[in-house]
Structure formats: structure tokens, C-alpha cells
Amino acid sequence: AMTTAEVDEFLAAERTCRVATTGRDGRPHVVPLWFVWDGASLWLNSVVRSQRWTDLERDPRVAVVVDAGVGYRELRGVELSGAVAPVGDVPRTSVADPALAVPELLFARKYTGSETFAPDGRHAWLRLAPDKLVSWDFRKLGQPVANQ
Q1: What is the per-residue pLDDT across 98-127, written as a single tens digit (0 to 9) for each?
Q2: CB atoms within 10 A of CB 95
Q3: Pairing of strands 123-128, 42-47
């Protein structure tokens, strides 16, 4: 497993997660999304006219995976699960929202290299404060276990 600091560093660096929702028929629906991590919550910037958004309006539970690596001993990742909640306008408008200041700054820095987030009128924010977070880092296989 990763330490808390390693999880924070990993989630800050990786760019794409995969989000699983449950469709009306009970089947999973998995899609890639951009995200930011603020140290406590995963913030998803989602198109509001999408199957994902429809699924989440009916059942807000998600499972999210962020992973990296190609070879077996390079594999590492984080799985988060819980219920998401919309934060702010749906869809997001350009009206300042203090509740979104941190995730929008993190998002702008991560994906545009700027300090300014520009809403497009199609996306809105979903916040996942995970009920469960599991991590793995196969690069540590064969190494002594450190105190977490």
C-alpha cells in the first residue's frame, strides 16, 4: 500500500481516473474523467448531459480507479468509493463560488498550466469524500514494509 503522502502525491500527478456508475438496468458504466484531489476529496468535472450524470442523479454511489504502470512491478494505483455530491451551479457558471475555489485552482494548474479556471457551461463539479480508499504499489514488492 501507499502511505498517505504517497497517495496525495500520486493523485496530484496522475491525470485520468476511471469512474464507475450504475445504470438503470444495474449494469456498470465506466468512463475516463479528469479529476483533482485536495487531500480529502476527489473532485470530478463532469458533463451534465451525459449517461454518467443521469446515473448519478439516480444513484450517487461510485467507484473510481486511478492507476499507472506498464510492467507488473511498476503497477500502482488508488481505488476510491463512496457517494458523490454536486457542488455549485449545475452546469457551472462563471459566478464566483468560494466552495469551488480550491478544486478549480487545482484543476486549472493541472490541466491548463494557468491560475484561472474557465467554466464552459456544460460541466459541473462532483465531490467524492471517499468512504473507502485502497492503494497499491507493486514497486515495493520485495522491500521491507515501512510504518504507514
Answers
A1: 999 999 999 999 999 999 999 999 999 999
A2: 8
A3: antiparallel
